[in-house]
Amino acid sequence: MDDHRAQVEEMLADYRRSREQLAAVQRELAAVSGQAASPDGTVSATVGAGGALVGLELSELAYRRHRPEQLAELIVRTVAAAAAGAAEDTYQTLSAVLPVATDPASLVAGTADLRPDEYAVGDGTETVDLGRQVGRRRVDDDEDNEQRESWLDSELIDRRVR
């Protein structure tokens, strides 16, 4: 009986250690952030855990040096650089607790146990979630999009007239 009790105690101690390690990793992942600045220093971005944008600063010069579309592109590139830094920190945090052969980037992406052909994108369709109904539609179906937009416009006009 004492042998079983000792085994159970050992298993419980292992469980507690694993749980504490998991909690520590979760705290580290929640604290991950990334920061980046544009090469000219006019844009700086900060992202939090998961790459979510949490801060964006534009200097006065940003509006003078860049046309709106250039500034928008610069913001996107700067945010992407900050997100890449945060992702690298995430991968390093996970690497410490994952088996050696596990790729943390594919684990985070949800593709760790999939072949590339199982998650490849680029067939010209997208998944559309319509409440409880999920379907696929062509992304490049411009005629359908124009019809949908004109229908929306006429629907809005009809509402205003009433």
Give a short account of the largest sheet.
3 strands, antiparallel
Average pLDDT level: 79
Strand proportion, as a percent range, falls in 15-25%
Largest sheet, spatial ordering of strands: 1-2-3
CATH architecture of the largest domain: 2-Layer Sandwich
Number of helices: 6
CATH level 1 name of the largest domain: Alpha Beta
Relative helix content:
55-70%
The first-to-last residue Cα distance is 82 Å
How many domains, in number, for the residues? 2
Globally, the shape reads: elongated
- Measured on Cα atoms, how large is the radius of gyration? 25 Å
- Structural class from helices and strands? alpha+beta
CATH topology of the largest domain: Ybab, Chain: A
Following the backbone from N to C, one meets helices and strands in this order, namely: HEEEHHHHEEH
**Unreliable stretches covering 5 or more consecutive residues:** 126-162
Give the strand tally.
5
Q: How would you describe this structure to a colleague?
A:
This protein is of the alpha+beta class. The chain has two domains: 31-116, Ybab, Chain: A (2-Layer Sandwich), CATH 3.30.1310; 130-161. It has helices at 2-30, 60-65, 68-95, 104-109, 116-119, 142-161, and strands at 34-37, 43-47, 53-58, 125-130, 133-138. A hairpin with a 2-residue loop joins strand 4 and strand 5 (133-138). The radius of gyration is 25 Å and the shape is elongated. Residues 126-162 have low confidence and may be disordered.
